[in-house]
Design brief:
The protein is α+β, with helices and mostly antiparallel strands. Helix content is 38%, strand content 19%.
Length: 491
Amino acid sequence: MAERASGIVEYVSRAKRLLTQARTAEEVRQVLDLAAFAAELGRRIGAGTGAVNEALLFRAKAMRKLADVVDEGQAKGEIAGHGGDRSKVRAPDVAPLPVAKQRLDEARRIRDAFTDDDLERRFAEASAGDRELPTSRLIAEAKHGERETGKRERERSRAAMAPEVAELTACRWEEWLPAQPICDLLLTDPPYSTDIEDIRAFAAAWLPVALAKVKRTGRAYVCIGAYPAELAAYLAVPPPADITLVQVLVWTYRNTLGPSPSHDYKLNWQAVLYYRGLDAPPLDAPEMVEQFSVQDVNAPDGRHGDRWHAWQKPDALAERRLMPVESAAAKDMTTDLDVLAGIDAWQMLDSEGVMRGIASRVQWGPDSWRTFTIRRERPTGTPTELAKRLRAIDNPREGWLLPALTIQAYLTKPKPGGSLIEAAVVRTMDLYAYAQMNPCTKPRQNPADGVWFDWYRWDALRRVGCQVGTVVGTRQHLDDGLFPRPDGGPI
């Protein structure tokens, strides 16, 4: 292996010399290709993780220099600001981008997220653990950092805009509306045609005044009834010149009862007129379900204490996603229960008419670590089970689903398959309460996928009074009543 590794070292040494001499973006790109070739060659000839990482480290450093050289060239007007050649629109003395735009964006992300010292430390740690650190992992971490930074900036912006005291005013719109300053968002629910004698005249009077208060960069949402006359009245009102009616959104609900019409269809939806200012920024709706023009959300229900007005809109219409079980395919619902709620299985007691969800985590290897593990951070930045379970636990009134029990099992290889070494079960609420009171001080990272996880010893939970049932091989120690039989005995 030493001989094979020495060949890779020669390629890397050559690339280092060329990078030191490189002055143009094209020269840096050639160095990038050489480093990438050295890494791939190292994999093919089995030169070892250390040699491959040495080539990847230098490739990452070359990407940082590429970003700097291109930015400098674009600032001077020497390099085109778009991808491709486009010689018909590019001045003859302006060089094209040396790489695809996506590759340049990746180089800039690595440049902005890591210093050369950061890269050397990261690759040294990876090589010490005999793990390859691919460029894609660095890019994913850089994107995660960007998302976290953007999230913090949005939170600071929202906090700065949030009023310290909410003010409620009861008066006619003719008195209140003209006195209001211009705004970023208009969210209003005017009286429906069932409460207004002349809905056409009413809409023509108040709507232009309200829309005139919205900035060119703002948005407006006007909730109206789904009656044909009411829709026609509002759609006939021309908006001001700097805002436009973009869509008629739909809020539909399935939890209301009433007399069934004999000749027509039951009305179970309401309209939301969506207006957008001509200079409005892109819509801040990162989740796909937030982008749907039809939202299926139950109406407020007086039996649950959350309905105060006949035409009240649910908070969930703006901030939640609802997936009715009866409208989801079995496979889709199974995936959502696992990914969103952490439920892998159900325990059902048919005789008592009850059931509860179970989270199951399995690890394969030669030994049992006798710990519960909780994912805390992914390289992609997507929410982990720690964030999802804590949101459900910390907001009980919201009713988010979570598993009642959590199981951690250790099996021998092969994966899948193997034999049970040991497993434990604990109440999910107990596990996360312990985790909040006793934060993990030494989280670990899975080298296979880069996910960070916290770990908590079974015995440590027992010492503070948490019930932890265990199974060793085929011997059960579930005498804590966590898995009751219908007759009340342990199982």
